[in-house]
Amino acid sequence: QVRLVESGGGLVQPGGSLRLSCAGSASIFSIYVMGWYRQVPGKQRELVASISSRGSINYADSVKGRFTISRDNAKNLVYLQMNSLKPEDTAVYYCNAKDPITNTIQYWGQGTQVTVSS
C-alpha cells in the first residue's frame, strides 16, 4: 500500500524558514510527479510546488523565489524548503503523488501544519 508521510511543520516567526519532508513508497517515486499543496480553513487546496521524476519544477507565483522543491529518488523523499515565510503561508501542507500518464493525483499524505506568527 502506498503511503506518503509528511514531517517538518511547526510554528515559525515571519521571515523564518522551515523544511518539509515527504517520505513515500519506492513504487511511486521513480515515475510519479511529486507535489506540495496547502489548504487553509474555508478555502480550496492550492498547489504550492511540484517536481517531476526528471526534475521539471513548477511553483505557485506566491512562493516563487522563497520556496524550493527538491526530490531524492534514491531515498524516496521530496522536500519543500520554505524561506522568508509570511503569515499568509500559514496552512496545512500536503504532499501528493500524481500519475504522469493519467495526470491525476493518486495519493495524498495526511498533512502537516505550518504556522507563521510572531
What does this structure look like?
The chain contains 1 helix and 11 strands. The longest helix has 4 residues, at 26-29. Strands 2, 4, 5, 6, 9, 10 and 11 form a 7-stranded mixed β-sheet that branches. Helices cover 3% and strands 50% of the residues. The termini are far apart. A hairpin with a 5-residue loop joins strand 5 (46-51) and strand 6. The model has no long low-confidence stretch (mean pLDDT 94). It is globular and about 40 Å long. The chain is mainly β.
Summarize the structure.
With 118 residues, the protein is mostly beta strands. It has 1 helix and 11 strands; from the N terminus they run βββαββββββββ. A hairpin with a 5-residue loop joins strand 5 and strand 6.
The percent range for helix content is: under 10%
- N-to-C SSE string, H for helix and E for strand: EEEHEEEEEEEE
Secondary-structure-derived class: mainly beta
> How many individual helices?
1
Alpha-carbon distance between the two ends: 40 Å
Nearest-angstrom radius of gyration?
13 Å
**What's the mean pLDDT score?**
94
Beta-strand content: over 45%
Uncertain segments of ≥5 residues (pLDDT<50)?
none
Shape: globular
Give a short account of the largest sheet.
7 strands, mixed
Number of strands: 11
